[in-house]
Amino acid sequence: MSAGRGCVACGHSAWCCVARGRAAPGRCFGLVHGVGFANALSELALDREHLLLALFSFNVGVELGQLAVVVLLALVLYWIRDPRALRRYVTFPGSVAIAASGLFLVLERSGLGPLVGV
Hints:
This protein has helices at about 1-20, 25-40, 50-80, 85-110. By secondary structure, the chain is an all-alpha fold. Helix 1 (about 1-20) packs antiparallel against helix 2 (about 25-40) and helix 1 (about 1-20) packs antiparallel against helix 4.
């Protein structure tokens, strides 16, 4: 489910690179995407005494991962200063790549993917 939401969000982001004025729904989609991560923790069936530590550790890990991505993107933004070039060479291809990997995960988890039975 989470991979599907990510696929839709990145597909929307790629579409926004082509068609202007459609970014607001994509920004709200991240909130829904976070619910999938919370659901993954609930499937681990942790006992209540370890739940708070697991939730805290998970969130710290997610934030550190996001921080690493932000630092990397800040370097890319510094290197490519032209907004049109950034949209053409970073935002659009990055969104398409993430959407494709999300679609791959959705297909794999649904049993329709190319690696089923491998």
